[in-house]
Design a protein that fits this description.
about 270 residues; Rossmann fold; seven-stranded parallel beta sheet; binds nicotinamide-adenine-dinucleotide
């Protein structure tokens, strides 16, 4: 049975969505979780949910872990509290640049880079010396289907660039980490029902609803993933069952990339 008893797991972006689901699932199998988020009230709500379920969780909020000194104090807090870190799960992200390429502003481009590529870089860099000292550690970076294929009509050139870049960073971390007992893996969700995509399913804006419907038509399973369906893969990757997985991308997309999907037609 999967058991992470006493493991120290840091998860960024635990105020909701996949980060909250991950905090609940990691704690449920015995891990001690340190979360963080820019959203204070919702991040505290996650801590309360984990503790109510009998789990162990602390949290840093409100913090922006894309700032190197903040990332360092978040990581150091886990080591001060529990003496070690076993897993850094770089889950948090924010896609700022949306819409046609030619209309992408410098501000949105730079913010997307900051929140989707620099943020996992600075958190991983802050954890690295602890992993080296311990001669063990695992970094899980949250990639995306957008690292592999452009999901028109989602349209964000910056998001496609950052997530593809993060897969490259993951390979580099695995290459350099091996001699130190450090593994690095990216976990790429397809389309997930989370606060980040709520606008597609809320029915409030016909244009956004049309985008959501177009996305679902591309998925052979015909639905978006739940946050729990992504979190459970992260738990598996951190478990003793996945110790040979390293330097690669694990795509959890309901068949989106592998199948050029069109509605089912029986073979004639
Ligand atoms: N939802 C999807 O369809 C989808 C698909 C592929 C990949 N992803 C990726 O999955 C990850 C989780 O996304 P989600 O769907 O749960 O979205 P979400 O917006 O619900 O969760 C992201 C969390 O990260 C937090 N966050 C953002 N910037 C932060 C910062 N600077 N410091 C601290 N916390 C910060 C947000 O406040 C939020 O709580 C992201 O990396 C996202 O790019 C999502």
């Amino acid at each position: 049975m999967l058991n992470l008893d006493g493991k120290v797991v840091l998860i960024s972006g635990t105020a909701g969505g996949q980060g909250r689901a991950a905090a609940l699932q990691f704690a449920a199998v015995g891990a001690r979780v340190l979360g963080c988020d820019v959203k204070a009230a919702e991040a505290q709500e996650t801590v309360d949910m984990v503790r109510k379920a009998g789990g162990t969780m602390e949290s840093f909020h409100p913090v922006d872990v894309s700032a190197p000194e903040v990332a360092k104090s978040w990581i150091d807090k886990a080591v001060e509290t529990w003496g070690t870190i076993d897993v850094l799960y770089n889950n948090a992200g924010q896609m700022r640049a949306k819409g046609p390429f030619a209309e992408t502003s410098m501000e949105d481009w730079n913010l997307t880079l900051q929140y989707e590529l620099t943020m996992p870089f600075v958190c991983s860099r802050a954890a690295w010396p602890h992993f080296v000292r311990q001669h063990q550690g695992l970094i899980i970076n949250t990639g995306s289907i957008s690292a592999h294929v452009e999901l028109m009509p989602l349209r964000s050139c910056a998001h496609g660039a950052t997530k593809a870049g993060l897969l490259g960073l993951t390979r580099m971390l695995a290459a350099e980490g091996a001699v130190h007992g450090i593994r690095a893996i990216s976990l790429s969700p397809g389309v997930v029902r989370s606060p980040a995509t709520a606008r597609f399913w809320s029915g409030e804006d016909p244009q956004q609803t049309a985008v959501g419907e177009a996305l679902l038509r591309k998925i052979p399973l015909g639905r978006a993933a739940s946050c729990e369906e992504i979190a459970s893969v992260a738990v598996f990757l951190a478990s003793p069952m996945a110790t040979y997985i390293n330097g690669t991308d694990i795509l959890v997309d309901g068949g989106l990339l592998g199948v050029a999907h069109h509605p089912y037609v029986p073979a004639g």
